[in-house]
Amino acid sequence: MRTHTQITDTAIRREDLKKITRILSTLAIHPGALAEKRRLLISGLAELVDADGWLWTVGRVDPVRKCPMQTNMLFGGLSDHQVSALLDSPCDPTAPSPCDERLAALVAIGKPFVHTRQQLVDDETWYSNASAQTYYLGHGIDQCMFALTPFEDSGFSGIGFFRFIDRPAFTEQQRQIVQFVGSEVP
Questions:
Q1: What is the pTM of this model?
Q2: Rounded distance between C-alpha atoms, residue 52 and residue 143, angstroms
């Protein structure tokens, strides 16, 4: 159980903790299957951090192609075209995503993490990158926040939270909310 001091150290506001508690209490009594509960949890978290859309995947990194292969997926707030673009992005050898190298290095450490796009790559690199222009900006997606939990054997569970073009970046407060919930709800 978290103490008040620990919660204060994470800078999560009381009203956000109340919203998190409501999300989790709704899930606790929800009669649906696990996939439905995951969708409710991630949708609630996306709403809490003001994301326009989200994509959750479980998969592993293909050892030959060195790109992720999804074995399970849920999404909300994104069109089918946006989801396809997000899934295609890491596997395009002609236009590597500017975030991929940093994300791969973090996954290799083997510990869960939550990072905003700005923590992974600066604005100049992002907006001039062919992959970002094709797979993100070209599909109306700009701001991103990634929460990944690596597994053994190159496996992972990851949630991407996204904001459409002309929306502000995710704040440190919002990143901490995702990190807090992710650390308590594996």
A1: 0.85
A2: 10
Distinct helix (H) and strand (E) counts, the chain: 9, 5
CATH superfamily of 4-184: Transcription factor LuxR-like, autoinducer-binding domain (3.30.450.80)
Q: Which of 44, 55, 78 is nearest to 161 (CA)?
A: 55
Phi, psi at 95, each rounded to 5°:
-145, 80
Looking at residue 92, the DSSP 8-state letter turns out to be: -
The helix-helix angle for 34-48 and 172-184 (nearest 10°) equals 160
Paired with 133 in beta bridges are none
Neighbours of 129 (CB within 10 A): 19
Write the pLDDT tens digit of every residue in 45-69. Answer: 999 999 999 999 988 776 676 666 7
